[in-house]
Amino acid sequence: MNKTGKKSWIAYLYILPMIVLSFVLVYYCIIDTVVVSFTDWDGMTDVFHFVALKNYIKMFKDHVFWTSVVNNLIFFVGTVFIQALLGFVLAVLLKKKLPGSNVFKAIYFMPIAMATSIITAIFRIIMDPTNGALNQFLRAIHLNGFAVNWLGDPKIALVSVIIVNIFQWMGFSMITYYAGLMSLPDDVYEAAKIDGAGFWRTTFSVTLPMLKGTTNVLIILGIVGSLKTFDIVKLLTGGGPGRSTTVMNTYLYEKAFKDFNAGGAASIGVAILIIAMVMSFLQVKFGKED
Amino acid sequence: MGKKKRAKSKVFTYLVLIVCAAIWILPLVIALTKSFTINGFGNYAYVLSYKKISYFKVVFNSLFIGVTTAVVVTAITALAAFAFSKMKFPGSKIIYGMILACLAVPVAAVTSPLFATIKNLKLLDTHFGVILPLIAFNAPMMLLMIKNYFDTIPDELIESARIDGATTFCIWRKFMVPLSVPMIANVLVLTFIYSWNDYLVPLLVMRSEDNYTVTLAAQYFMSSTYQSPVDVARIYAVMILLALPSILVYLVSQKFLVSGITAGAVKG
Lengths: 290, 268
Description:
Chain A is an all-alpha fold. In chain A, 72% of the residues lie in helices and 0% in strands. Chain A: Keywords: Cell membrane, Membrane, Sugar transport, Transmembrane, Transmembrane helix, Transport.
């Protein structure tokens, strides 16, 4: 169509609304973030000075920044692998299509439809060290040692944040694996059966390797998700106690709107943008291979 | 032996599924039962008649933002996907690539410039101040999903319609869109849920309680009250009420949401 080139201007009409409403704003924000990262702008007034690489030098020397990077990494690893394993096992069990499977699927997936803002509120009350339902339950079954200060202990807070994140997003891994499982040909299972492989043997040495593409996509989306992590941390712990749960986005937000250091915030933004753009590329690439 | 083994594996399967389901539904069950403690339905009455933040206004705000964003994103991405999928024009690869490069860009990474832009457009504390960034940052992912779907529609179909004298827009309206209804529904539902659940953009833009979204209202109630047992019961009632609309949307549109998320991941 339109291969004559004569009418190619029509194509521009079709992409125009998307360019105006999405492309322009997104790229303006990206470019402005890069520009601001070389200034001392406070984010509010119109006054700013060019400071060259000062924000970046400060950022690389800032141990809180590195703490936030490490926390992002821990968050990513903790979330993705537990989530993928749990999601995979549940998908395999659901694929048996026993009566009631759809109800189970709906339950596992429901937190994704709920706002993080609401889920975190519920968990903050449940995880309250003295009055929370979680610790009341643990004390009732005489596991007092496990009744810890879930969100207030710097050693445990990040784990708690990861637990809540897994609660919200496990259904995503499950449904992705489930879709992958449905696309596998049946004769593979027949062959494994003839070879005398049991259920779990088949699952882990036949099914899982065949779903490598799905796993790759989940890992990339896990990195993307970790990069986007903001509200779950801000609302559960606010990045604390101390710096134990601070991630790049909450640190950036703090710099921008508490310290009024938009320049410093932008330098963190640029670091996130660079990783994000590499991830976008990988997401599209692995998605195609799958 | 075989039968016995199969029965055993069935029991095991249900055991795992039920234990996990219990864990996954428990927080909601706790919230629901505790929301009726001390004052019973009085907790709900308290929330519904709360003066400073009107429940119905809050739900309306989120609904308005969610629906507008979803409709606009679906419309602009379905139009653009047609051009990227079925037309040849100079710069198409570069522009598409540049849009895809933004797939993983989080709003949180660009907060100061975004805030300044919304301020300069005089959109602070307005619905459109929230809607505009939500459209901008949700559209790239949705474009990818619709474009991938359009790619599966054979070119011959369009070619023959063209020979029959159909205009480009006519082809879009009478072939592309009707043939892609499942994917368009996916994109509609997914964008709605993402916009409804967003916290950061309303946090940056909205100021007055009258303009609060569901996500801001949840945090308002969370931070404004001292958490005595009565407060906890009321907060749970708030959360149940605020979660209710999105749970209803989920139950109605579950099929589309699930397949939409899968399409985004597998083909994404």
